[in-house]
Model the fold of this input.
Amino acid sequence: MDTIVSIRPLVAVLVSICAVPLLILSKRSNIRETWTFAAAVAKFLIVLSMLPAILNGSQIVYTLAEVVPGAAIKFRVDPLGMLFALVASSLWIITSAYSIGYMRGLQEHSQTRYFCFFALALSATIGVAFSANLLTLYLFYEMLSLATYPLVTHHQDEEARASGRKYLTYILGTSIGLLLPAMLISYNLAGTLEFARQGFLAGTCSKGLVAMLLVFFIFGFAKAAVMPFHGWLPAAMVAPTPVSALLHAVAVVKVGVFSIVRVLTGVLGTDLLSSLDLGLVICIAASFTIIVASLIALSQDNLKRLLAFSTIGQLSYIVLGVGLLSPKGMTGGILHMAMHAFGKITLFFCAGAIFVATGKRNISEMVGIGKRMPLTMAAFFIASLSIIGLPPTGGFLSKWYLVLGSLEAHQTVILVVLLTSSLLNAAYFMPIVYRAFFNPPDGNAQDTGIQEAPLFCVVPLTVTALISILLFFYPQPFFRLAQMTVRAITGG
Amino acid sequence: MSQHFPALLVTVPLLSALLISIVGWLYKRLCFPIAVAALSVTAYSSVGLLLSVMHEKEILYRLGGWEPPWGIAYRVDHLSALVLVVVSVVGLLNLIATQKSIQEEFPEKTGAFYTLYVLLITGLLGIVVTGDVFNLYVLLEITALTGYGLIAMGEEHAPLASLNYVYMGTIGACFYLLGIGYLYISTGSLNMADIASILPGLYDSRVVLAAFIICMVGVCLKMAFFPLHTWLPNAYTYAPSAVSSLVAPLMTKVMIYVMLRLMLTVFTPVFTFSRVGLSDSMVWLAVIAIAMGAVLALAARDMKRMLTYVIVAEVGYMVGGAWLGNRAGMTGAILHIANDALMTLCVFLAVGNIVYKVKGYAFKDLQGMFRKMPYTMSGLVAGALSMVGVPPTCGFFSKWYLISGGVQAGQYGFVAALIFSSLINVILFFRIIEIGYYEPFGADHGQGSSRVRTAEAPLTMVIPLLIVAGGLVMMGVYTGDIVAHVIAPVVPPALGN
Done:
């Protein structure tokens, strides 16, 4: 395997931080938004420019500073990180467009602050994706927690403060209380924090300690919202919808599961886990989360809260996939990071578009809305297919691999969990779509004809819905990257 | 020139203090420039010393050419050079940052203020640079007396708080003096290196043990190690903000330095860690200090008092780290001297700016502060993140070494205390940040604070704050170099690798 030393990963991380001063100094909002776009596109292009090398089997590394012996601030681009970075950076462009429509549509305050912290959050996300060791990952993980705090609490009212508190309590509480000690214990055991093909903890400690570290890591990355550390996610829905969309369906939560995948494969090692039968612990935690979150989602009336619980369930698919420790299961889990991202962001965009156009947040008020906003609700339909895992959407592929993985690992119970969850997903999404299109609106509402949200809102959600379909037919390069990751781990 | 740096460090500010007190009678405006010039020279010489110490091993300077152990020797090794840089840089930055507030608070007493200020720095630098235990006592008293004076210049309760400090500080100094008296009886020497060379034959002497313990009690009092911290919160809270931001970062840290010097140089690591048999107790006392500091900080209702209890907890960090008896713990303790000084300076400067603009430091005075003073609040947030221990700020890395040391020594109580205190710091600082960010609540969302106009502190206050805030990140990023080139040579080989 070639290793290329290049500064590009660092540039990819820094490009949005560098945009922050420009955003602050921009006198007019149009100029500011231009900078946001420029940064987003630049970031995406830099990430994209590294793709061919990665697909050829090379790795790109860059060391910034050796802060602690054995743990530098170091970047490494590998297939897994590439997949995540591609998803996050491409969706940032789309979300930027959507943000403009949404924030202007609602005449939100403090838009400059909003765009600045958005840019910072993206830097942190890419930083996590390209981290070469646990210390760097932790650095960007914390940076993301803090950069998203002003976004989550953007409204600055009492509700936002309460949610912000909950957000920080969960996220910082677990990262300092569980993740930090787990990281330091690992460091003292192995003398390094560098992600390795089969982890670096094998042979350094007892089974009990490995199990403890595993639990600390899984719950320490509370951004992955594995129950019981999921409470922050529904609370964080007070954020403006584009924030919920990108951060809480894509960047923040995916950083959580990405970190778990990284730790399971790069720190603990799948061989170690399977030799100690610890995959089961992961599967139980994830299955429980999947089923319970879906059941809670059934009872939600607030659309964004429903989506939040749906996300909690879907995130655990990814954890579950890797926890199966079988090649197909891992492929499915990793692939689901990308597939779920495009589906869920579409759903959030739709929720936001409905809010901008009609001011409605609750599902019970959305009866008959399909006549008024046909495009939005069509996108909603497609995206929910992807989440349920039905063709012709990308979600089908990842779920297919998860199912295959559960068979491969001879875990019929997991198969039942996956299928039950699909049914539950259908049970909470389909009534929304059905009532939107086929039930007449409330009696007193006038038939206003087609009245979609602003173009800046509608175009992004259409694009992401179309991508969800496209990914079914052309799952490359995500599929390829997922396979490469798994092949590198299993050595096959 | 460079071989006289150790002498310059002390004589330049000492003479400048005299000069300032005279000039203060005639022409008040000159006091500040003289102080800046004096402290610039010390900053320059201490950086120079650090650089030359990094090349050579250590620098010995004989005052008046008298040979030790008869004459007074100044001795600069990596540890003292690091602390010298911290003291002089913090002193200089704080001097510049607080010029406006001093002008406003004591228009009549600037001469006296700057005299005491520069004398205090002289004392601190002297403590660090001296190689003689009795000379250290003298300088300790110089520092303390000027400190009492400076603190007493504060608000209504300040004289009383200062008096309390006088009592406690004097008791502490007496203990120290008594301890070195015992040491002198048994070794017949006051020179640190000389004592260290005589001691190995006296490891079993009870007098030496008594000397060690009595010295430690004195030092613990002086550095506000829980439960001997009671003088600190009031003294630092009621002091003028310009004084708080000077003594809070430096006094306790220099006393930690004294503790380390006694542990590592005077009494030698072998004696300290294997003969005294207090290591475990000290670590557990540190655990209590950290926990109690955190809890008491939670109970505070204004920023300065809260921060003073944070200092009490931070003292526990360093004492605990030093007594873990391993390389990582000692590295963490030494690193934390520098890091904690810098981050304490950062938050106290931010508070100073706020006090300058709104004339108060209660939590409620912070309402709408992010809009009112965005730069000051950014500085405060940077300091807060470092206190919490978020990478890449330096607070994270000293905590890293301290926790590593705890894990290696199997002291999980200490590890738990550090993590507990980090979590409490999240609550402490986000409570402040919340008030500044959300309140006053408006009728509609987010509109409440938009009525507040920006009213930032003057540039001379904001720029030093932002330099310190940037320094927190720089210190963090360069931790690797600092540890490898400055701290590693200090940690005695007896503590393992």
Summary: Chain B has a mean pLDDT of 87. Residues 148 and 292 of chain B are 26 Å apart (CA to CA). Chain B is about 75% helix and 0% strand.
